[in-house]
Specification:
This protein is mainly beta and about 190 residues long. It has three domains: about 60 residues, SH3 type barrels; about 60 residues, Beta Barrel (OB fold (Dihydrolipoamide Acetyltransferase, E2P)); about 60 residues, Nucleic acid-binding proteins (OB fold (Dihydrolipoamide Acetyltransferase, E2P), Beta Barrel). Strand 13 and strand 14 form a beta hairpin. The radius of gyration is 20 Å and the shape is flat.
Length: about 190
């Protein structure tokens, strides 16, 4: 058993007869009244996201988990296939258990969180950022650099992000997987 002071991003807990992963949290200590923790939880079985508030010191039931490195192989319909990098065993996960599947390219190594009680995969954690190639974007207009103007771009995985005007097709960019946003252009 844990309590609300142990809440952190990525923690898996049992709540309302389901297993949830904490995707956001905020400890609040108001001037009046007791402290509490606002959380955003994602069900690992259905993918549904819900907001919940825990009062300070409340007991929560955490789930014992193991992490393993898996390589993303391919997508088949709504199912994603991964291979364990240690023993080469393969697993399939539904799209709902992935945070940003549109940013994964084949061969990417990710961390899969597995429930140690029944060996069921719970969720997938991507690296903090990925490097992807821009496959389609409009050319930037010369002289339009006075503001932080952006334009839409399509990446090699099919994801769409807004990029600065100086980014062209064929450029490689670093994308933040947490927010799904452009970070910087990558020089080779």
């Amino acid at each position: 058993m844990a309590n609300t002071s142990d809440i952190r991003k990525g923690l898996c807990i049992k709540y309302n007869n389901d297993i949830f992963k904490i995707i956001e949290f905020l400890h609040v200590k108001p001037g009046k009244g007791p402290a509490f923790v606002r959380t955003k939880l994602r069900s690992v079985t259905t993918g549904k996201v819900l907001d919940n508030t825990f009062s300070g010191g409340q007991k929560i039931e955490d789930v014992r988990v193991e992490t393993h490195k898996f390589q993303y192989l391919y997508k088949e319909g709504e199912t994603y296939h991964f291979m364990n990098t240690e023993d080469y065993s393969q697993i399939q996960l539904p799209e709902s258990s992935l945070d940003r599947p549109e940013l994964m390219k084949e061969g990417e190594v990710v961390t899969v969180i597995i429930n140690s009680e029944d060996q069921m995969p719970l969720s997938v954690e991507m690296p903090a950022n990925v490097i992807l190639e821009v496959t389609e974007t409009e050319p930037g207009l010369k002289g339009n650099t006075a503001t932080n103007a952006t334009k839409p771009a399509t990446l090699e995985t099919g994801a769409r992000v807004n990029v600065p005007l100086f980014i062209n097709e064929g450029d490689k960019i670093k994308v933040d997987t947490d927010k799904g946003q452009y970070q910087e252009r990558v020089k080779e």
